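Repro case for the chain-ordering regression, as requested:
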Amino acid sequence: MTPLLQIKDLSIQFRTDEATVNAINGVNLTVPAGGAVAIVGESGSGKSTVMMAAPRLLPGNAVVHGEIWFDGRDLMTLNEKQMRSLRGREIGVIFQNPTAYLNPTKTIGQQIVEPLLYHHIASAKRAKEEAIDLLDQVGIGDPRGRFDMYPFEFSGGMLQRVMIAMALIASPKLLIADEPTTALDVTVQAEILMLLKKLQRERGMALVFVTHDLAVAAQLCDEVYVMYGGMVMEHLPVPQLVRASKHPYLRGLIQSIPPLDGPVEPLPYIPGNPISTTRPLPAGCIFAERCAAKMSVCEKRPPLIDFDQQHQVACWLAEKGGIA
Amino acid sequence: MLLYVLRRIGYMIIALVAVSFVTFLLMRAAPGSFLEMGSGGVVGVDLGLGSVGVHDPQAVQEFIHVFHLDKPWYEQYWGYLWGFFTLHMGTSFEYPATPTLQLIGQTFPLTIMIAILAIALAVVLSIILGTLAALRANSWADRGTVLVASLAASIPHYVVAVFLMLIFGVWFHLLPVVGQAGPKYFILPVVAMALPMCGSMSRYMRNSLVETMNSEYMVTVYAKGGGLRAALFGHGMRNSLLPFITVVGPQLASLMMGTVYIEQMFGILGLGKVFTSASSTRDYPLIMDSTMIYAVLIMVMNSLVDICYGALDPRIRKAQAKGR
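-- result from build under test --
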């Protein structure tokens, strides 16, 4: 498949008065058109930062280097006006906490139609009809009545459906979902995931799903990028996730998922804390200090080694077939 | 909603009784009496009305009797209070030929016009200045407005008034400084009242707007393809006006005090002037009535602010509609 989004050698720093945060340290990733890609990592791994860099929605103190190719254009070279014409029309974004990311004083209807109005795609009247139609598709009952209601009159799950409708109304080629279910109940979570999957298939759009939840990523996506300390540790197709993961970090993550059956045993966990992004990075492997399989060669930082087609691992062990 | 209004009116009546009682106490506690200090053309405004001679014992006795000054204090107090609520205020010491109601009717419109124009000018100026400062947050223009704002906030109305008189009246002969012969005469008084209010209000507007523009739902607006204009006028303004309006309320009280000074300085025959001359001549009925009408005015304006707040914030509007 042709790549829709291709990020090359991306590095991002946040400059604050106290320190420089090395949020992203050389990330390469590819999203095929119509594909579903998950970016998985713990808090502070830079997973959201990477994806917010694509529509250039990072705060003003971010220093971004690298290339972000979207549909044949390097987004890094576009001016603000060209960039604005992509946002909302070709790239849609869903955020983690719909209550905070919706304006509390405007009706959801007013907010949903905005992408169409900003890009002069439809008249206000047509936009309203499309919005009502879309609200119906994302599973909001009585969409005509709800159109004129305010965010505080909805539950969190409903608001996330509203957010999805808002991101999709201009039919973008790429949908970035930044932890869209983290703030929701588990049952609501499952409904939203199913809805996202269904809409992605129906519309043939590409989906980037940012999450800390490996299980959710496996359920929804075709391939997974695992991030740690602002770098990609492993990239592999979902079917190989459980059995063929090669990186000690990913292996640790998978093992720390509690099994639903079998005897109750203490869960294995990864010792130590995530690497600090405010201090200079170590010269060697950034996971080395927490790694049980550390070797002398880990003093040197491993590149992403091609293990298989569609499967890269940033670990010296990969050359020997990965962690046992 | 009706319940809300009724409760509101109930509070106003209680507050008014409290204000009138304190005023009555202070007024009676103040040394001196009308017979020594007032009338005889010594002080006060000459509205061409009668006066009482101090040297005629019989006239003094009659004066005391006519104004019920020989009654116990609580009867006097009740007389003032009941007279005010039923609009049978009688006449004052100073102007026995003009009913106080008529006196207030003549002077009150001037005062309220100046007050409303001043607050309107202050609000409009503050919104414009605050918005400009917010858009250029932390630039030299922003810091410049901080300086001007703190200057304006720390200089009282009457000092500003003197400066304005000096600049526009004395040096440039652009505007008249005393009197009320036409619209031109009200420009300086209104500006003198509005400027000091602008100081703190424009800062408040600036902070409120900066906070709104940095809130998470603004990221959504940009993600939908909105530019600065959409963010500012479509979302930011209205939301930053909400906290802004709450600071306009308390300004109203100081605004009413301002009219007292300003009318005195610019020689305008408003309620403030009536009030000052009444208090300096110990004109008991007029002190009571003008204080109470001031109190009513402030309370009504505060209620208007609350209503505006409700109109802008759907959360409050909908809660009120349900009768809470």
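Ordering looks correct now. Residues 40-53 of chain B have pLDDT under 50 and may be disordered.
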